[in-house]
Amino acid sequence: SIKAFIFDLDGVIVDTAIYHYQAWRRLANELGFDISEEFNEQLKGVSRMESLDIILAHGGLTLPDEKKAELAAQKNQWYLELVSRMTSEDILPGVANFFSQVRKANLLTALGSVSKNAPLILERIGMTEAFYAIIDGTKITKGKPDPEVFTKGAAELEVAPAECVVFEDAVAGVEAGKRGGMFVVGLGSPEVLTQADFVAPSLNALTVDEVLERFSK
Ligand code: G6P
Ligand code: MG
Q1: What are the b/e assignments for 9-37, b being 16+ CB within 10 Å?
Q2: Closest CA to 129 of 115, 107, 111
Q3: Residue 114: nearest ligand to its CA?
Q4: Of the four, 56, 76, 108, 194, which is 20 to 30 A from 3 by CA?
């Protein structure tokens, strides 16, 4: 039976996906090219340095490591400027209600994000206490689509992967959850999140009971 829910952060709990995109787009523009929203789908859930590599390849640029470190730090600085203004008002619609149902159902909760800024964002929105375990980009060696971030979460909660449901908005994140042996609810478009067990537009469109029913055998 299902014992735990593991949540991605960006695009699931808060809409920081848009801030990542804005900061990356600003960087690409400074380098002389542009990135579209459609292109951005492949960056979701992908680590900072891997995202930069994908963007540079898109712009046809090859740069030395020191320059890349500089660009990644610049992007992060712009990103932090955007997220520093966040408050609990920025929690996505339906999240607070969904979490109160999660508590009533006595489910365990973990955060599984490859973002190194995840703890900072949880503090800003006042949701640090909503998670029994927090796995972020500082605790993993491999980003999504590698399952490490989710399997570490399950291990900290002391539950088996098959007892976990992952909530993800990213193609790479859905793949990570499936590779980890977990049930995966995709949040977004079914045409994009094709590997998910099922897809809903957002947590606002779901109830905990509905999710549990889907995965109870
Ligand atoms: C999340 C986001 C990605 C981001 C990654 C690293 O997975 O979906 O867009 O690149 O975290 O975030 P960081 O805050 O460490 O740069
Ligand atoms: Mg995400």
Answers
A1: bbbbbbbbbebbbebbbebbeeeeeebee
A2: 111
A3: 1
A4: 194
Torsional class of 11: left (φ above 0), alpha (ψ -120 to 50), beta (otherwise): left
For residue 209, pLDDT beyond 70: yes
144 is in an annotated binding site: yes
Look at residue 201 and give its three-state secondary structure: coil
Name the closest-CA residue to atom 8, ligand 1. Answer: 45
DSSP state of 192: T
Q: Are 146 and 176 in contact (CB under 8 A)?
A: yes
pLDDT digits (tens, 9 = 90+) for 145-191: 999 999 999 999 999 999 999 999 999 999 999 999 999 999 999 99
Q: What is the pTM of this model?
A: 0.94
Which residues have a catalytic role annotated? Answer: 8, 10
Q: How many CB atoms lie within 10 A of CB 160?
A: 13
**Which amino acid belongs to residue 51?**
S
Tell whether residue 169 is among the known ligand binding residues: yes
Interface confidence, given as ipTM, is: 0.97
Say if CB 162 and CB 181 are below 8 A apart.
Answer: yes
Cβ partners under 8 Å of residue 126, min gap 6: 88
